[in-house]
Every structure is written in C-alpha cells, then in structure tokens.
Design a protein that fits this description.
single chain; HTH_TetR; transcription; HTH-type_TetR-like_transc_reg; transcription regulation; elongated; KstR2_TetR_C; mainly alpha; Tetracycline Repressor, domain 2
Length: 206
C-alpha cells in the first residue's frame, strides 16, 4: 500500500479535530437543553463555524446527535475497560465492585454529561429508540459478563440475573442525584463506597 501524502494526512487530522470539536459542542448542548433544545445553528455558533460548514461534517441534526451519543458510549466503555484492566486478575465480586465504582465516578465526576444525556432522557425522537437500546445493551454487557461469571463460579447467587442487573442500573442512574454538588470529598467517598456495597447485595441471595 502506498503511503498517504503528508498534506492529505494533515487535512484528515484537521478534519477529525474539527469533527470532534463539533461533537463535543453538541454534547454540551444536549446535556444542558436536551434534544429539543439543540439546534444546528447553536452548534455552529458555539463551535465558531458557519452552519453551511457544519453540513460538511454531519448531514443533519440527527446524524450529529447520533455521533454524540455513540462517542459518549465509547468513552464510557473505554473507561470501564481501563478500570477492569487496571485491577488485573481478581474475583467476580471485586471486579464488579470496581466497575460499579467506576461507573458512579463517570456519572458524578469524570463525565456527568453521561448522566444528563442517558440517565434522564428528555424527548428523544422515535428514530433514536433502537440505537439507544443498543448502546444500553453494550453497556449492560460489561456488567452482565462479570455477574454471569460470578454466578458460574459460585461467588454470586442471585435468583434472577436480569432483575438484579435492572436494579443495578437503577441504582447507578440515581447516583448522580445522591452524589450531587456540594458534598465534601470525604463524604462523597464514603457515600460512593456505601452505594457500591449495597449494589453488590443484589447479587447475593439469602
């Protein structure tokens, strides 16, 4: 395969950076205003580009929103994967505890926009129903694999994995409410640890 010309490579990198900037702006507006409150005019203005230029990157508002949602999903999955890799080879309980802790950190500290966009969806068009279900399934699979392994190894004994996981996601969605702004760091750490501990109780019967 022939090497790509250096000039062409620079153009591609510049385009990727601008595209990422547009997606970041769209995500910020979605976080603050929801789908109905986001317009391409606002995205263009806040990204400091012409609306006509925006169409070179995204063909429609829905295409841009879809890119923003997928980017958020990938970032969450990457953070969870990094946390799982960092703890190394451990049992299912310890691994699940780390993943729950990381997800709470994502929702309340490192990427609170995830909670705003996914945990409390506001006025999403029907066209996003299936894509968002798919994103949620991919996210659920990260936790499901650990729980199923724990059940198989005898670490977990929950009678219904599906119900337990639904309850877990409910707890995670509420985390951004429980760990709202204003908490002292020590109180935040204690409350997050308590939430993780109680969440694990879902997977141990008796």
């Amino acid at each position: 395969m022939e090497d790509q010309p250096a000039g062409s490579s620079r153009v591609a990198r510049r385009r990727d950076r601008r595209k990422a900037e547009i997606v970041k702006t769209a995500t910020r507006i979605l976080t603050d205003s929801g789908y109905g409150g986001m317009s391409l005019e606002d995205v263009a203005e806040q990204t400091d580009i012409a609306k006509a230029t925006l169409y070179h990157y995204f063909s429609s508002k829905d295409a841009l929103v879809a890119a923003a949602l997928e980017t958020l999903t990938q970032e969450v999955l990457q953070r969870l994967a990094a946390r799982a890799e960092a703890i190394g080879k451990v049992g299912a309980r310890e691994r699940l505890a780390a993943l729950v802790d990381e997800q709470i950190r994502i929702l309340t500290e490192t990427a609170p926009e995830v909670a705003a966009v996914f945990s409390w969806p506001r006025g999403w068009p029907d066209a996003f129903e299936e894509p968002m279900k798919d994103m949620r399934r991919r996210h659920d699979a990260v936790f499901r694999r650990v729980v199923e392994r724990g059940v198989a190894d005898g670490e977990f004994s929950c009678p219904d994995v599906n119900v337990a996981l639904q309850c877990l996601h409910g707890i995670l969605n509420q985390a951004s409410v429980w760990l709202g702004p204003g908490l002292h760091e020590d109180d935040r750490d204690r409350l997050r640890a308590a939430i993780v501990d109680r969440a694990l109780c879902l997977f141990v019967s008796g």
